[in-house]
Amino acid sequence: MAMLEIKDLKAEIEGQEILKGVNLSIEPGEVHAIMGPNGSGKSTLAHVLTGRDGYEVTGGDALFQGQSILEMEPEERAAVGLFLAFQYPVEIPGVTMTTFLKEAVNSIRKARGEKEIDAMQFTKELRERCKLLGIPEDMMRRSVNTGFSGGEKKRAEVLQMAAIEPKLAVLDETDSGLDIDALKTVADGVNRLRSPERSMLLITHYQRLLTYIEPDHVHVMVRGQIAKSGDKSLALQLEEKGYAEFAEDVAA
Amino acid sequence: MASESALQPFHEQYQALSNAQDMPGHQLPWLSNLRERGMQRFDELGFPTPKAEVWKYTNLRPLERQVFVPATGTTANVGVDRVPSLIGEQAGHRAVFVNGRFRAEMSSLGRLPDGAEVLSFAQALETDPGFLERHVDQIASRHEDQAFYHLNSAFMQDGLVIKVAEGAKIEEPIEVVYLAAADEEALAYHPRTLIVMAPDSEATVVEHHVGIGDGTTFANHVGEVAVERGAKLHHYKLNAETDAAFHVATLHARVDENAFYDSFTLTTGGRLTRNEPHIVLNGAHADARLNGAYLQRDKQHCDSTTLIEHAVPDTHCREIFKGALEGKSRAVFQGKLHVHPDAQRTDGNQLSRCLLLSDQAEIDAKPELEIYADDVVCSHGCTAGELEKDPLFYLRSRGIPFPVARRIMVESFLGEVVEEITTEELQHAFMSRVSDWLSRSTE
């Protein structure tokens, strides 16, 4: 069974159609990348999949391991194993990273009928994960994303992903705003989480990220539809030629 | 036909108590005069109506419509076998009042440092009436029209007296538990608190107002506080009475040169709560913190009407009130900073922020700066709104269910003001009350 199957998905914001029939199938263990020009609907797809307010699905479906997720609350989607790394992680003053992560991990465990994580075990694992991602431990005592640099925020997203251990991670422009060192660290973190049971969907504007996280499949999204799919060589083509030809294809 | 407020038999009740010579200290002429004047003034003023600016947003008709019986030392029909505590073992000293009367057998005043005294008002009337005569009704100013101040003066029988001598420091917090305990009969009581901090003394007082039983109570507190030169008073309060409780607390505090008055009030309970502190910064480098948080639901009503007067140059105040409202509850914040003409270099700031957790909740916030000096730094800010959507979605996208996400956000919102409490242990005590309230409402 596919990890994620998107069938002719259509969605609009305030009456304006953004997704115009998206089809995409991701198998367990696969890493897919969606590229495309600004405004093509890449981030909208991520938001619709995770259940953000303000988007209305007008047609089609999205099945996660065979189960439609479009009617689920955001927390229910997280509980079944869907994770979104935000393009713009949100600052929450007054809530420490540790509290936040513990609440998140335990909420998901609870929803799955599992026991709460042992506090000692949690702290130990968190410390190791911070080390791997080059995150200073004192960041865990700071408020969620508050005052973090762009790079720190993106690392923190990957840290959350590591702690939550989702089945499918959607990474929305995780490379944006990162210098090359930060990009490598973040990519290393993501690569470490690749496994035959875990799928990933990378949303990116640039090919750069894909040299560090090699995708199995690359899709080009233009005007709310997948215009072309291929292997990682497609990303290199795009880097050379830009998106113009695809835009014409769709328009034609 | 008699108006509803005329149904309130306060005057008759006062006459009966007065004639029976039943009130503590009835033989003291100054006190009898004070009571008499209080009754007269209340008769003249009657219950405040929304026509008065300071009562514009709080309607007292539910209070007026209820006939109360004056609580006596034995009117608690409800079994009081366990005294709730906010701060547990942290309280080195605990004074317990039931319906406004001191209960020695439930209290444990512990060992106080030399020069510090904590005793009931009734007891002080016997052992140290001169001290009370010197201070009671001497601190308040601009109270002529405060009907509840005068009603308290008429009926005051007991309360709390804290007297800390020059340089004395009470290390452990003094917890003052005010139990409201009524069942069938609606009870009214009027406790008087007098705190006199002599120069360079220090104390922490935690008032814990709590209710048991199903009955209606009306607690009409008046506090008089003098923080003399260089002294520090940390004055914290939890209003956690039942939703059948009316609570009106009028406070007058004078803060002298280099003295620090630090207050925080958390209101979770009550049907109608009115806190009206009036702080006068009366000496150079006097400093006041007037902070508060409120959590209300259903039809609860919580009114914080504050006045801070900068009477002399070089004084400082900071005021933060934050709250969250559910259901059809309503909060009022009226905060006035009054800077006298020669009070140059005043530094005052004020902030009111409210989270509306339901469409039907309401906040009426009125910040007011009245500045007659020209060299001052004063600011105020005022916001009201719903929970922010983005953080809520962020938390939920990590698997945290809506009620928990909401609790986390409200806690962090209120945490900012709870953290103003200077003792970390007390911060935790108040914060746990915030969490309890939020857990009750959402899970």
Helical region count of chain B? 9
- The residue fraction in helices of chain A comes out at 25-40%
Q: Which percent range describes the beta-strand content of chain A?
A: 25-35%
**Cα gyration radius of chain B (Å):** 21 Å
Instruction: List low-pLDDT spans of chain B.
Output: none
> Element order, helices and strands of chain A?
EEEHEEHEEHHEHEHEHEEHH
Terminal residue distance of chain A: 35 Å
Main beta-sheet strand count, sense and barrel state of chain A: 6 strands, mixed
Give the largest chain-chain interface (CB within 8 Å): A-B, 32 and 22 residues
The largest sheet of chain B, given as strand count, sense and whether it forms a barrel, is: 11 strands, mixed
Count every beta strand of chain B, where a strand is a DSSP E run of 2 or more residues: 21
The averaged pLDDT of chain A comes out at: 92
Outline type of chain A: globular
Question: What structural class do the secondary elements of chain A suggest?
Answer: alpha/beta
